[in-house]
Design brief:
Largest sheet: 7 strands, antiparallel
CATH architecture of the domain at 279-384: Beta Barrel
Oligomer: single chain
Strand order of the largest sheet: 3-2-13-5-4-1-14
Number of helices: 6
Distance between the termini: 120 Å
CATH class of the domain at 279-384: Mainly Beta
Shape: elongated
Radius of gyration: 35 Å
CATH topology of the domain at 279-384: OB fold (Dihydrolipoamide Acetyltransferase, E2P)
Strand content: 25-35%
């Protein structure tokens, strides 16, 4: 009887063992790329709301999701993140000790994310911040946690790697463009050519709208480029012009002035002509378009009178500004009287700004679109020296 029961139990055991793995396999989690759907979404070190926060994620950030723990997604650590262990517990690349903490920084106050034990092998380098610690790659089983409520599926597991590659390529492109910009700005002002760099940056923004951080860096670089070019433009107007050869008196003909009254060594100096927009519209056409878009075309004079009555005034020194792009918001800039730094772009069809170049002035202005340049833009209604 006992033998029969024993045989029956042995016959039943393989059925249970064979069935268990099949059940687990059917519930295997498929990793995927998740996109963060909110701002300031917290990535935690443990899957609970009381756990320490490692960092805050922003909308559209990507995470590689490898599992689920309660109400949290388990995510791979950010790429490039390193761990640190105390060098005392490592001998010839082998851990000597139990429950050796792997921390996120080379000090005991940094949070721990894993533990190593005797016999575990590690490869690392001495931490530059603290030579008592060893910098290592994080163990493969380390995971961070993000609430499921703020992550939606963006693609398969491979999508994350592809986007990381795109991000690296984008950063390299921006680095190369920044280097090209620096090289170009080392040239004499009249030889600077920034149109190509500007076109590439604008194309970069169009091609990478799904990477907001890269786009923000490109926009910052454009603003930086405009600012540097503006500073060089203003500085170039302060540089002494190339000396002109002496002109004989008989070659100088001025109405109402006899040639013998003209000094023999006086050079002929032609004042710079007011700049014109680089694009297809003249400043008059540009102003007409602004008036039409805002419903002032039919009563332009009344609009100008109303704007001047508001009394919006600025004080500074006027300098010419010739830009490399067609969307520049003015052909002159106004400099702060104390710092001599640009504070506004200017253009006008009512006042001849060329007559006030290099002079301290008070100007009555009406605000205009600055086309995302570094400073506000104004239409000058009146100039007073």
């Amino acid at each position: 009887m006992r033998l029969a029961i024993l045989l029956a139990s042995l016959a039943f055991t393989p059925f249970v063992l064979a069935d268990q793995p099949a059940s687990q396999s059917s519930k295997r989690f498929e990793p995927f790329t998740g996109k963060v759907t909110g701002h300031n979404v917290r990535m935690r070190l443990q899957p609970n709301l009381d756990a320490q926060v490692y960092k805050e994620l922003d909308r559209d950030d990507l995470v590689l999701v490898t599992g689920i723990v309660d109400d949290f997604y388990a995510c791979m650590p950010p790429k490039g993140l390193k761990g640190y262990i105390f060098r005392t517990y490592v001998l010839d690349g082998v851990v000597e000790g139990s429950n050796v903490f792997v921390r996120l920084g080379p000090d005991r106050s940094s949070p721990s994310v894993a533990q190593l034990n005797s016999g575990d092998t590690v490869k690392g380098t001495i931490a530059s911040q603290n030579n008592k610690w060893l910098q290592i790659d994080l163990p493969e089983d380390v995971r961070f946690y993000v609430s499921k409520d703020y992550v939606q599926r963006a693609g398969d597991e491979g999508y994350y790697a592809r986007q990381e590659t795109r991000k690296a390529d984008a950063m390299k492109t921006l680095t190369d463009l920044e280097a090209a910009l620096d090289a170009e700005l080392q040239k004499p002002f009249h030889k600077i050519q920034l149109a190509t760099i500007s076109e590439k940056l604008n194309q970069f923004i169009k091609d990478n709208k799904d990477m907001p951080q890269a786009v923000a860096q490109a926009e910052t670089l454009i603003s930086h480029m405009q600012q540097l070019y503006l500073n060089r433009s203003v500085a170039s107007n302060d540089e002494p012009s190339t000396p002109q050869p002496p002109v004989k008196s008989e070659s100088v003909k001025q109405e109402g002035v006899k040639s013998e009254n003209v000094k023999q060594d006086m050079p002929v100096i032609t004042p710079p002509a007011p700049a014109k927009p680089v694009g297809t519209l003249s400043w008059q056409q540009q102003e007409d378009a602004f008036l039409a878009q805002n419903g002032h075309k039919e009563n332009a004079q009344a609009y100008y009178a109303e704007e001047q009555a508001k009394g919006t005034t600025l004080h500074g020194t006027i300098k010419p500004y010739n830009s490399f792009v067609s969307t520049r918001p003015g052909d002159y800039v106004l400099l702060n009287l104390k710092t001599n730094l640009p504070i506004a772009y200017l253009y006008s069809t009512k006042a001849d700004l060329s007559k006030s170049v290099n002079k301290p002035v008070t100007i009555w202005v009406s605000e205009r679109p600055n086309n995302n340049f570094a400073f506000p833009a104004y239409f000058v209604l009146q100039v007073e020296e």
